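Form P-L/3: holo structure prediction, ligand 5-O-phosphono-beta-D-ribofuranosylamine.
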Amino acid sequence: HRLVVLVSGTGSNLAALLDAHDDPAFGARVVGVVSDRAGVAALDRAREAGVPTAVVALRDFPDRDAWDRALTEAVAVFSPDTVVLAGFMKLVGAPFLARFGGRTVNTHPALLPSFPGAHGVRDALAYGVKVTGCSVIVVDAGVDDGPVVAQEAVAVADDDDESSLHERIKVVERRLLVDVVGRIARDGLTVDGRRARLGRPAA
Ligand code: GRF
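OUTPUT (holo model):
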């Protein structure tokens, strides 16, 4: 099962997938990493693991649609079965979803539908919730509102700040993402309207 991972930053979720893919029981391999930013740590991690990389930066294209088409092509080169958005900070558009919709998942550091968007941890803290967590979702045209595949809760501590809470969420998030992606590779992913579940559709 071929995975392409989209990144924008540190790449700790990517690193967890790269660690897992050496185990044949995992059932999937990261065959390509695509970033929308040059020079990020995630690209170094991919190179260290011997995985090919590509950078498709929005500013190198005349408009968002041209960028999205180039991104789609860059991903398609690797012939993925599943695309994983792991800390990818841009929304994918219609051309991308036409090609990879239904088999693209994203990891988000909050319990969706609460706190979507780029600041899920900060927003949860500001709201004052006592429990937050992480979500793996199927990517659709909205902002973090695709069908939920899996979630796990993380308690908010009284003395948390954004960084301490995010670090605790990321520990859980990496484990959840690796678990979900491995299960998609081995057992498939079924999406029925808003309901997503691991496993193949009933015959
Ligand atoms: C993750 O918490 C992801 O959900 C969020 O940004 C973080 C990316 O971390 N959107 P990394 O680049 O995988 O280390």
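COMMENT: The beta strands are 2-7, 29-35, 53-55, 82-85, 104-108, 131-138, 148-155, 189-192, 195-198.
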